[in-house]
User: Fold this.
Amino acid sequence: MRFYLSLWAGKLTVWSSRLFGWGGSSLPGRVARCLDPQVLRRLSRQVSGGNLMITGTNGKTTTAKMVAEVAAASGLRLTHNRAGANLITGLTTAYLQSASAGGRVGTDMGLLEVDEATVPRAAEEVAPKAMVVTNFFRDQLDRFGELEHTVRFIRRGLERMRPESVAVLNADDPLVANLGRTTPTRTLYYGIDVPGLGSREVDHTAEAKHCVVCGEPYQYDVYYYAHLGKFRCPRCGNARPDPQVVLTGLTSEGSRGSSLTVHTPAGEFEAHISIPGLYNVYNALAAAGAAYALGISLANIKAGLESFSSHFGRMEMISLGDKEVFLALVKNPVGFNEVIRTINETREQKTLLIAINDNYADGTDISWLWDVDFEMLVAGQDHVKSVVTSGQRAEDMALRLKYAGLDAGLLRVERDMKQALQMGLSSIGPGEILYVLPTYTAMLEMREILQKMGYARKFWEV
Amino acid sequence: MELRLCYLEPDTSGVHQGRSNLVALVKRCLWRGVDLRLAEVTTRDEPDFRVYDLVIISGRGDLGRQFLARDLRWLRQSSLAEAVEEGVVVLALGAAFQFMGRYHQAPRRTIEGLGLFDMWTEAGEDRLTGALATSVRLPGLNTYLLGHENHRGRTWLGPRARSLGRVITGLGNNGLDDTEGAVYRNLFGSYLQGPLLPKNPEFVDYLFQLALERRYEQEIYLPPLPNLVEDKAHQALLRRLRLDQSAPSPQSAL
Assistant:
């Protein structure tokens, strides 16, 4: 009885949220869990295809979205927490939306992007068939305190999984790969093995300098980016495990994406993905690894990856009349550096709008801005026409750019995001691009402004 | 003029504290035309701290907390304590600040510190985190220091210790007695981070001045630099903390 009361109250909240146009995707879950704390457990265990959890610092949403395309290509119906509501209440809401009034879940599989701190509880409640761990980077450090702490959350989650379930792990990230040493589950590693790719130079954003077993500094045969690469410990021999799902060939096509050759135990396939950046190659490998672990055919994996297109402003282009807006979410040094690298690929003079908020969802400690390689952006000073900084921490962003060496004359501070957007747009000509780089809540604000101007869809429809 | 700066990042801290403080020092030296001799050292090197004018020890106890004892042993065996006694200007942040006390007590072990500050630290249950603003009054420096804090340790000052500042907003050393950081001779310890030096240029210049005056054994006048962007960031944070009314224009002391 309690279950039905909870279910109906939750569904009623889903329905009224839609009716009144609230974007809230955690409220229904919260309401339902108050009435029956077991509601997620009861709903999620009904799906015949099982649940896939995706966690890690970067790439959760993109990887989940790629898996969703692969699942669609295989004809699987999904319960998917699409809006990025990745706390326990968000997962519950997703399942409430898939459930009938009789409490029956009408989908085949759960695809759940899960916040790191929520992993132990989510693993316990949904009993996942597989869990993908993408990578560990310093991100919003104030929320979890320490990276070590975050890793512990994931380990605890894995310990609650069944022995026949699979941990899909990034072999190139020492912190992730090490989870494979202790997990009671089966393991499947994915990684990169492309001769000539990567560098021998260490990136200063590298997190895991030392062997997780004995503390000796790692040696790397190659770094792909940050601390991801072919690592080994010269003292105790702890080294990157051999991945089963391996990228063996890569052709970058600049801002139009990349072509991948992926080797798996079931054979090899080639796929073109339409978003740029090496980190998106990793996301595609994670998605391929997860889909392979769930028994999906290579043909469907290829089809899914190829039908994927960028979404919810992880990196997207929006046309505004005769001008264009390049919108990319920034939330930590590694992601921001990748965005800068992508922007630097085009040679023309650029106008940027960087909007930094420090709400809880953005991380209240914005000191990570000092670990972003803005020097790389400013180094081609001739390539930067002007920068507008905006958001709650507009001044801090301006300060960072000054210390990165940006000429103060090219810098404007405008806290109000609408004003800042207009300022940015008015300083570019027809056919030119305004590069807009917001943090999470600044992105929501920016999209609302764009939406009022009539240009972008509501994010939860994407 | 020449300034010998040593930037020490404990090798085993795993995640670096953030290079913001180093960037601020390097850039302000450059803008002042001060010839900077920078040594970036880790606990795998064997520096003699007495040859430097300014030593910055960054410390954000993170990933490899299990290795802190090794870092501390290294620090204890180094010439840091002698350097402090000789008047070298030293800034110790976060975990490094805790090292400078008498001991650090965690549930399972107690670590003996350098004992340069008469203070001790106990690990708390939860983390003290959030915006931190302190009022600092030292000979030649009267300002607010603004930043962020994130630490589990509660630090208590003994009768012979002096705090660096008084907490205006935030938690400070322990969340109870309104003290933040500590000062002994030219050794400054603080929990302020994120970033401390770029946002508090007056404090950077104060450290420069102390270091240069000690090195050249004369009074040194540092002409003010254009701090427009810094002041804006400083004032925006004061506004957020609702301190703007009471603020005696933090940059005016330059």
Summary: Chain B touches chain A through 39 residues (CB under 8 Å). The domain at 2-240 of chain B is CATH 3.40.50.880 (Rossmann fold). Chain B has a mean pLDDT of 85. Chain B has one domain: 2-240.
